[in-house]
Amino acid sequence: MRKRYLTCVDCHEKHFDVDLASLAKASAVRPLLYECPCCGGILQVGYEEDENPGTDLDKKSGKGAVSAVFSDFCDTDLTGMWRYKAFLPVEDKKNIVTLGEGMTALVRAERIYRDLGIENLYVKNEFSNPTASFKDRPTSVGISVAKECGADTVAVASTGNAGVAVAAYAAKAGMKSIVCAPKNTAKGKIAQLLAYGANIFYVDGNYSDCFGMVKEACAEYGYVNLTSTYVNPYTVEADKTVAYELYEQLGGRVPEWIVVPIGTGPLLSGVWRGYQELKALGFIDKLPRMVGVQAANCSPIAKAFYNHQEVRSETETEYTIAGGIADQLVGYEKDGEFTIRQIRESGGDCIMLTEEELFKCWHELCFKEGVFSEPAGAAAVGAVRKLCANPAFHKDDVIVSLVTAHGLKYPDLPNRLENKAVVVTGAKELRVEAGE
Ligand SMILES: *Cc1c(COP(=O)(O)O)cnc(C)c1O
């Protein structure tokens, strides 16, 4: 049977996960490891064949067998992201909690950057996941592992989307969810939390305040922590599936650039790892450059990247419409360092957008491409205009922007636009000016 383990990204110490056979007999909830017991570093999942070393992944890979194809790795009994179960940390299918996440559309954006001569920009519409954000991927894996552990309550610190996903998947699994979010969380997200029946706790503070409280509460009450930073090593694994999907959707072609909105950065790191795995298995021979995007009003990672400095958490951040990526990193600055390490390793870049730029790209993406995203998601497309200044950028490069969440999460935002709607009484009045 395949055995999973955890390694520390800093001291590389290996920690074996409890084996699943003995787990089945245990009655109590198994506590998960959230950081390296040796040095406090970030943990990552690894996989090992324990009885028959070199079977499964190795044997099927390009290394030994000459004519391996990627679809050999896909589990055809399963749908969506779970087709890639061979790369995910859940062994027994009966523990999978799914609402059909993954396999999101990849759409070419032909109009938005016509002025720049960019023709190979694709948006991956992650908002077509079941709760309308990509957070359904990490949450589906996280809840499945929690189920495997016998958990009955899961908790999450969130600016909204992760909380919404946890609430939905907990409902599906019959677990209780504790969602801790800043008081000013976007309206659409709150509506979803209420609908899914989460136990909602507002904090009169920012995301980092929620993060600290949930971490403490999990230690105190034994909840499984599904916070979407690097705390839960299992959830991050799911973000690799974006890379496998892109590999299939682009017919094996590796994009030159993948642009990802980042709070702490697990999505970016996960996609990067997915591509590294594809390369290690011999399916691709080059890697994409990873580009992180932050809102200027809360950008500890982008600032450290630009200034070649250590990541400094931000205690006094201003409001941003890109709430989904507003992470101050207070107390877990090292997570930001880890994300920067991945970006640099890939030869990538990090981009900041002002509130004005965020609003502009959000709006443009709506009326030029028909893609209604929450501003944090649109930032992945907005950043492309600035990416052009990178010396490694060519305008015929293939770029993929991950549009991470749906616009209905912020139902009030379109009210900032001029509303020319009129009440009419007859067909004659239904006239518009000629032109675009
Ligand atoms: C969570 C989130 C991201 C990325 O977050 P990371 O946790 O840093 O990977 C991007 N966009 C939206 C809308 C999000 O909710």
Describe the structure.
- By secondary structure, this protein is α/β, with parallel strands linked by helices.
- It folds into 2 domains: 153 residues, Rossmann fold; 203 residues, Rossmann fold, CATH 3.40.50.
- Helices cover 33% and strands 15% of the residues.
- It contains 13 helices and 13 strands.
- The strands form 3 sheets. The chain has a 6-stranded mixed beta sheet, sandwiched between helices. Strands 8-7-6-9 form a 4-stranded parallel beta sheet, sandwiched between helices.
- α4 links the parallel β6 and β7.
- α12 packs across α13.
- It is globular and about 70 Å long.
- It starts with a strand and ends in a 33-residue tail after the last strand.
- About 1% of the residues have low confidence.
- The structure holds pyridoxal-5'-phosphate.
- Pyridoxal-5'-phosphate binds next to α9 and α13.
What strand line-up does the widest sheet have? 4-5-13-10-11-12
Instruction: Characterize the main sheet.
Output: 6 strands, mixed
Number of strands: 13
The helix/strand series, from N terminus to C terminus, equals: EEHEHEEHEHEHEHEHHEHEHHEHHE
Distance between the termini: 60 Å
